[in-house]
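agent> step 3/5: call structure_predict on target 'Glycine/D-amino acid oxidase' (Salipiger marinus).
agent> reason: downstream docking stage needs a structural representation; sequence fetched in step 2, passing through unchanged.
tool.input:
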Amino acid sequence: MTDATQRARKSTPYWWEAAPVRPLPEQALQKQVDVVILGAGYAGLSAGLTLARAGRSVAVFDAMNPGEGASSRNGGITSGSIRPGFAKLTRRFGEKTALAIEAEGKRAREFLYDFLKTEEIDCDFRLTGAFRGALGFDQYDVMARAAETLAKRLQIDTYAVPHGEQRDYIGTEFYRGGVARMDIGGLHPAKFHAGLLRVTRAAGVAVHSHTPVTAITRDGAGFEVTTRAGKIAARQVLVCTNGYTDGAAPFLRRRLVPVRSRIIVTDPLPADLMDRLMPKRMMMSENRQLGFYYRPTPDGSAILLGGRDSSFAGDPVEPMLRLRAGLTELFPELRDVGYTHSWFGNVAMNRDMLPRMFEKDGVLYASGFCGSGVVWAPWLGRRAAQRLLGERIEEPSAFDMRPPAAVPFFNGRPWFMPAIIKGFALQDRLALSRAIR
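tool.output (status=ok):
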C-alpha cells in the first residue's frame, strides 16, 4: 500500500458520528455569578453541576464547542491510571502515598459508574475489564507483584495473567503475559459528554460555547472575568482547561504541556476475527513509554487504537502510519485492513505526571489529567467544586497539592515534543531489546 491509500477516510473523531459536538444557542451574559468556570469538558461540567445543585449560580465558558476538545476525542477507557505506575509511585513517594493515590482511583471509578447510572446517561458503558501487556517476563514479574499488592491492600479486582494464559485475553504473541483489572471498562466519550452537558444545563448552569475568556482580574474579594461576549463578576473562579489552556490562564499554561494523542479506527472486521483478537472484548494497554491503548468499538465490530502523536502543527500522515504499524505489530493479520477514522486531540502532561487540584492567587485549578481524563476529570471537577463550597471531606484528595513545577523555556507551544517523543521511542526500543523474552 502507498501512504495515500493508508490514510483514513475521515479526519474527524469516530465518536462524532453518533454524538456530534455542536454550538449552544447564544445567551445573554449575566452581570454577576457565584462561580465562573473555564472549560466545558468533563471537569468543568462536573464542577458546575455540583455547584449548581448546592445552590450556586454558575457560568461556564468554552473557547470551542462544549466537549470539542479531549472530552469527545479520547479513547473512552475508564482507566484512571497514573502514568508513573504503582512501583514507581512507591519508590518516589513511599507505599502509603502510592496506595492513597490508587485508592482514590478506585473511588473515582466507582463515582463515575454510579453517576452514569443515577443520571441515566446512556453512553454505551460496559464494565469489560482491562488487560495491560508486559514487554518481557522481568516486567511481568514487577507488574504481577503490584497487582497482588493492590488486590490485598485495596481489594481491587486485579490479577496477573501469565504468558500461557494470554491468548484467553488477547490474540497476540507480542506480550509476555500481563495484568488484568476488572474494575475498568469502556464508554462512548462523546455520548458521555452530551449526557453530562444535558444534566448540567438542566441544573441551571449557563454554558457558553465559542466564548473564550481573555483575562481574569482580581476585583476586591472577587474577580472580574473578561470574555469575548463581555465582562462578568464572580466570587470564585475555577480553571479546567487541561490540554487546551491558553493565555487566559498563564500560570497554568507554563505548567501543562499539550501533547497530541492520535486515534485510528479499523474498518469493520469479521466476527470470528474479533473473537480471536479480542475474545473478552476488554480494554487494552501496554507497559511502554509510548505504549498504545486500544479497544473494540462499542458495537464490537472494529478496533480503535491510540497513542502519542509527535507532531504539534498541521495534520501530517506520519503519526497515523506509526499507529498502523503498531497495530500490525500486535496483530499481523490486520496488515491490509482499511481505516475509517484518524484524528487527534490534546492531553495535558506536567513534570511529575500527576493530576492535581491547587489554588494560586485565589483561582482554583483542576487539570493535568495526563491522558486519563475519562475518570480523573469528572472526579477532580467534583472535588474542586466541593472545595469551593467549603465542604469538609472525610478523605482529602491525594491530588490536592502544590502546583506542578513550571516547564523551562515553555509558554504554550510544545516545540520540544518531537524530540521528546523520539527519545521515548528510543527508550522503548532499548527496553524491548533488553527484555527477557
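agent> step 4/5: record observation. The first strand starts at residue 32 and ends at 38.
agent> proceeding.
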